[in-house]
Every structure is written in C-alpha cells, then in structure tokens.
Amino acid sequence: MAAIIFDLDGTLLDSAPDIHAALNAALAPYERSVSLEQARGFIGRGAPVLVSRARAALDLDDSLQDPILADFLDRYETAVALTQPYPGALEALDTVAARGHTMAICTNKPIGPARFVAAHFGLDTRMRAMFGGDSLATRKPDPEMLHATMATLGAETCLYVGDSETDCETARAADVPFVLFTEGYRHTPPEALPHAAAFGDWAQFPDLAERVLMSG
User: Fold this and answer.
1) What are the positions of the active site (predicted)?
2) Shared domain check, 20 and 7
3) Which whole-number Å values give the CA distances from 106 to 62, 66, 131, 193, 201, in the listed order?
4) Which domain holds residue 102?
5) b or e along 175-185 (b: 16 or more beta carbons within 10 Å of the residue's beta carbon)?
6) Known catalytic residues?
C-alpha cells in the first residue's frame, strides 16, 4: 500500500501554545515577549528560524541568536502541557493504518522534542519513521528530508500532508501530491497553495486520502 507522510506542528498537533511559552521564557531575560499569534507566524522553518524571526520582530541583536535558541530548545525539549492533537486526528490515523497504509512524520521540529511529544500522544507507535529538523543537514522546504522518509519506508507512492507554505513547497520540490490541512499555521489563502486536496476536519481525511491515492 501507499505511504502517507505527515507534518507535525499545525497538522497533527496544535503545539503553538507550548512553542509560545518556551519562546517567551527564553526572551524573558531581555525583557521581551511575543503574542501567541506572532509565535504562530514564526513556526514552520525550524527552531533557528523561529528564534531569528522573533528577534527581528523585537529588534534584538544578532549576537543573541545562539543564547536565545539554546534556552528555547532546552525548555522546548519536553514541552507538552499546552499541546493537543487536532480533534479527530488520532482516530483518522488509526483508520488509515487499518486500511494498510504505512505512515511517517517529516517535520522541521527538532527530533528530540518531536520524539518526546510523539511518544506523549501515542504517535510513535502509529508511525514507521520520523525525521526532524536536525535529522539531516537540510530542512524543509528542501526535499531531502521527505525523500529520506520515503526511502526509509520503502515507498514509491506517497502523499505528504501538511498545513503550511513550507509543506507545500516541500511536496512540490519532492514531486509528491500535497494534501493541505486548512486549520494549521499557514498565512496564504488555501486556494493560493497548490494542492491535490484540502480538508479542515480530520474525520474527512481517510476517505480523502484514498481518493487522492487512487487518482494518482
């Protein structure tokens, strides 16, 4: 059967509140903070870019990048208290698995926090593989991570499911169909992002994925 590969933050999990809390804790020594909405806007290209975007918004010097990033990562490593799966996501994964498809995660989230939060919510037992933002030398939207995930699964046919512009670019660069989850952290209107299908309710996903796979 085909493989279905998922982004994590903003797709399977609403983790922005934990990211926001860890980021503000790392910014606190500099008497700065960002709103939850700002933090959502910084998500998608990995932790270094998240911190860089926050610094730029707050006019903090480049020399503070490394200490803020280190503090953020230390706090974020086990941050799960404010994170929740999107409604119906876990049930949809179980339906997909019951239909015989293999699944994996391909995320720009650092692999340590990704594995921790995946284990916390039982995603680790549902996924055959997981690649994080520091698993390889490149991050999304470079297609290398998605290609590596596919190779690990031994998949020739796959879908990539994500919520953001970065995910769309990754799928396009990897030449795989992109399925857009519309309730995540994107900024661009859905119609402006090339996609094979889109959904906002995880209950719709298993049948939608089957249709996209059959059409391919």
Assistant:
1) 7
2) no
3) 29, 25, 5, 19, 21
4) 3-14+84-215
5) ebbbbbbebbb
6) 7
The per-residue pLDDT for range 38-95, each reduced to its tens digit, is: 999 999 888 999 999 999 999 999 999 999 999 999 999 999 999 999 999 999 999 9
Distance between CA atoms of residues 51 and 72, nearest Å: 8
Give the tens place of pLDDT for each residue, 4-19. 999 999 999 999 999 9
Half-sphere exposure of 26 (CA within 13 A, CB side): 28
Which among 52, 76, 100 is the end of a domain?
76
Was 94 annotated as part of a binding site?
no
Distance CA 211, CA 205 (A): 10
Distances, alpha carbon 216 to alpha carbons 18, 195, 203, 212, in Å? 37, 13, 22, 6
Q: Is 59 annotated as a binding residue?
A: no
Residue 2's Cβ-side half-sphere holds a number of Cα atoms within 13 Å equal to 18
What is the pTM for the complete model shown? 0.92
Mean pLDDT, the chain, whole residue set? 96
Are residues 31 and 109 both part of a single domain? Answer: no
Judge whether 167 is annotated as a binding position. no
Q: Greatest CA separation found in the chain? A: 54
Q: Look at strands 84-85 and 13-14 and give their pairing.
A: antiparallel
Q: How many domains does the chain have?
A: 2
At residue 162, the 3 state secondary structure works out as strand
3-class DSSP assignment, residue 6: strand
Closest CA to 153 of 172, 176, 169, 173: 176
